[in-house]
Amino acid sequence: MNSLDINQIKQYLPHRYPLLLVDRVLNWESGKTITAIKNVTVNEEFFNGHFPHKPVMPGVLMIEALAQTAALLSFLTEGRKPDENTVVYFVGIDNARFKRPVEPGDQLKMEVEITRRARGIWKYRAVATVDGQVAVEGDLMCTMRSAADASQSA
């Protein structure tokens, strides 16, 4: 079983609080799949405004958490860590569906599978669940670029 703790995750993702949305990698298989978790706490900044009377994790942040999980899988598959010259862009999503709200105290379990990799574009099937119930699912696309090429279209 391959797993990563938060300190190891920070070696692969440039994100930091409050935008680092992966707390632990439970398991991953190079070139295939990854399973990670995000512990959702009431202390998250976004709950101050979304919504004060009924805190719900924004859907775009659930998608971002899945995209970060996908980026981890890509780096792990390539057997390398990013450097200051590497940028991973989230370039697309298809078939996104939100099935249940995610609230403080929930644990978002994210499962991402590589479905295709061609011409620098990685495609994934991504599903996040809470207590076995699908919260969000979709097909993601990401690309890795050098920082020098970052201003060019993906």
From TrEMBL:
<dbReference type="InterPro" id="IPR010084">
    <property type="entry name" value="FabZ"/>
</dbReference>
<dbReference type="GO" id="GO:0005737">
    <property type="term" value="C:cytoplasm"/>
</dbReference>
<keyword id="KW-0456">Lyase</keyword>
<comment type="function">
    <text>Involved in unsaturated fatty acids biosynthesis. Catalyzes the dehydration of short chain beta-hydroxyacyl-ACPs and long chain saturated and unsaturated beta-hydroxyacyl-ACPs.</text>
</comment>
<keyword id="KW-0443">Lipid metabolism</keyword>
<keyword id="KW-0444">Lipid biosynthesis</keyword>
<dbReference type="GO" id="GO:0016020">
    <property type="term" value="C:membrane"/>
</dbReference>
<dbReference type="Pfam" id="PF07977">
    <property type="entry name" value="FabA"/>
</dbReference>
<dbReference type="GO" id="GO:0019171">
    <property type="term" value="F:(3R)-hydroxyacyl-[acyl-carrier-protein] dehydratase activity"/>
</dbReference>
<comment type="similarity">
    <text>Belongs to the thioester dehydratase family. FabZ subfamily.</text>
</comment>
<protein>
    <recommendedName>
        <fullName>3-hydroxyacyl-[acyl-carrier-protein] dehydratase FabZ</fullName>
        <ecNumber>4.2.1.59</ecNumber>
    </recommendedName>
</protein>
<feature type="active site">
    <location>
        <position position="50"/>
    </location>
</feature>
<keyword id="KW-0963">Cytoplasm</keyword>
<dbReference type="InterPro" id="IPR029069">
    <property type="entry name" value="HotDog_dom_sf"/>
</dbReference>
<dbReference type="GO" id="GO:0009245">
    <property type="term" value="P:lipid A biosynthetic process"/>
</dbReference>
<dbReference type="InterPro" id="IPR013114">
    <property type="entry name" value="FabA_FabZ"/>
</dbReference>
<keyword id="KW-0441">Lipid A biosynthesis</keyword>
<dbReference type="GO" id="GO:0006633">
    <property type="term" value="P:fatty acid biosynthetic process"/>
</dbReference>
